[in-house]
Amino acid sequence: MMTIARPVEPAVEVDTVTAPRATGAGRGAVDRWGKLFFVAAFALLVGVPGIQQAFQIIPVHPLTEKRTKARMPSLDAAGVFTGSFMSDFDSYYNDHAGFRDPLIRFNNQMHLSVFHVTPNPRVILGKNDWFFYSETIRDYVNEWAPRTRFEQEWVVRRIVALRDGLARRGVRFLLVIIPNKNTIYPEYMPERFRRRPGIRLCDRLSARLRWQGVRVLCLEDVLRRHKREALLYEERGTHWNTLGGFYCCTAILNELGRPYGIRYPEARDLPYRFGPAQGDLTGMVEGVRGRVEWTPCLALPPAPLADTKLPSTLWYGDSFTKVIEDYLRPQFDSFAFININHGPMEASLMPRLPETRIVVLGLVERNLRNVLPHYALPMQPTQAAGRGADARRPYAPPRASPDAVRRRRIERT
């Protein structure tokens, strides 16, 4: 059998002096310096916030928060054994960690500028960088909960009872409904929110009250009439600005002054200037920057707007009334504003009732659903002293009488 011999390759001589020696010493040095750099960077990343928290090396502008930050807890044996010290210290560190405030601002700005959303679910980003309050969405899309109709019937009965009780004392009553911002400016709402056809909640409530003879003033028509003249709401807030507030203030005063033959001038007759707009929703997404917006700012009227002042008035309302309180006050012989969030109406109404001639309840549209059904209205102001428990009774869906239930069963069959 024939075999084929393979060619022998020539040997290559290697210069052992100049060739690199493949040892692990070089790689070990590089790995060691890399690990030292990683440990130093990690220690710097962990330690710098603590150094900033302790010594405030870099001055930081604090966030505007509507709460009190947690305090450093005291170290004692009881807190250590029960675990309360560690939980309190955790809250303290979360509120006072170094660079916390600028990092929150950076996060908020990244959400808005890069992802086009707000980091706070209670704030909705609309068109042209407008902000809207999430609590107004159900009113905007005209969505009713199953119990809403029962709640509104309960509200109607209590307001009618309040009106009747005040009328027996010679006191006039007026309900003022202030529209949400997205009711006046729906063109700036995101496209994902679609309005459903049908009667809105505020329209149904006002119609039911007017049918019962209650004076109701809805300010939506006033604001829509002046909408094209100037900006009436804060672009990054929930409230109207001073110009929009005064348009409505004039309408309210004319409604209150109509029985007394008093007329008030329009807001265009008063001087106003333009100032930077600062919406309250901006505080919910602290640190978000954008273009500077200017909004009309009215100066305080130097004197009453009419020759005759309105009689003493007690006004119950929300934060919208706070914007026009300084304009309203000079127009009355006596004016008192009470925020509905500061307690039930009975506690402040009864002591002031003898010298009060007008009672106004002014609420923004969203509070007709969120606040009014649970707000304690006195059923009969003339007898409220003996019916305090009933006045403070929370909402409960009205129960049908046995006869009504029997009639409904017959109708169904």
3D architecture notes:
- 39% of the residues lie in helices and 10% in strands.
- It has helices at 25-55, 77-82, 84-96, 100-113, 137-140, 148-168, 181-184, 201-211, 220-225, 242-257, 319-328, 345-352, 367-370, 388-391, 402-412; strands at residues 123-125, 131-133, 172-178, 216-218, 272-276, 294-298, 313-317, 335-339, 358-364.
- It is elongated.
- A five-stranded parallel beta sheet has the order 4-3-9-7-8, with helices on both faces. Strands 1-2 form a two-stranded antiparallel sheet.
- The protein is α/β, with parallel strands linked by helices and 413 residues long.
- It has a domain at 131-396.
How big is the Rg? 34 Å
How many DSSP-defined strands?
9
The order of strands across the largest sheet is: 4-3-9-7-8
Please, what is the average pLDDT? Answer: 78
Structural class: alpha/beta
In DSSP terms (H or I, runs of 4 or more residues), the helix count works out at: 15
Task: Please trace the helix and strand order, writing H or E for each element.
Answer: HHHHEEHHEHHEHHEEEHEHEHHH
- Give the low-pLDDT segments: 382-401, 407-413
End-to-end Cα distance, whole Å, is 111 Å
Which terms summarize this structure?
413 residues; alpha/beta; two-stranded antiparallel ribbon; 39% helix; 10% strand; elongated; disordered C terminus
